[in-house]
Design brief:
117 residues, Homeodomain-like_sf, Paired domain-containing protein, WH-like_DNA-bd_sf
C-alpha cells in the first residue's frame, strides 16, 4: 500500500496492531491521537498482508537519471521547436544516457521517440 501522506513509524504501527489484537476498538485512534481512517488502514493492511510494512512498488524502472529528466524539461521549455534527436544529443552530452536499448542499434530521428521514455 503506497503512502499518500505522512507515514507512521514502525513502532506506532506495531502498537496499533497490538492494541487491536488486545481487543480495543476505535478508541485506539483517540488514545494514540490518530485519525480513525489512519488506524483502520493500518489494521486493514496488517489483516491483508500480515505485516504493516509497505510493499515494493511495481512498474517500469526509470531509464533516465533525475538530472537528465530535469535537463530535458528545461530544454523543452526553453526551445519548444527542438527535435527529439537534438534533445537526445544534449542529454547524452550532460552525462545521462537517453537510450538504454538492449540491442544497441544506432537510432534514426524517426525511432528516437520509442527509446526516449
Amino acid at each position: 500500500m503506497a503512502p499518500h501522506g505522512k507515514e507512521l513509524s514502525e513502532d506506532l504501527e506495531k502498537r496499533i496492531v497490538a492494541l487491536h489484537k488486545y481487543g480495543i476498538g476505535y478508541k485506539i485512534a483517540k488514545t494514540l491521537k490518530l485519525s480513525c481512517s489512519m488506524m483502520a488502514k493500518t489494521i486493514q493492511q496488517f489483516n491483508r498482508t500480515g505485516s504493516t510494512q509497505n510493499r515494493p512498488h511495481h512498474g517500469r524502472p526509470k531509464k533516465l537519471s533525475a538530472h537528465a529528466q530535469l535537463h530535458i524539461q528545461r530544454l523543452s521549455l526553453g526551445n519548444r521547436h527542438m527535435s527529439a534527436a537534438s534533445i537526445v544529443a544534449e542529454v547524452e552530452g550532460v552525462g545521462g544516457s537517453a537510450c538504454k536499448c538492449s540491442d544497441h542499434t544506432p537510432h534514426t530521428a524517426s525511432n528516437w521517440s520509442v527509446c526516449l521514455f
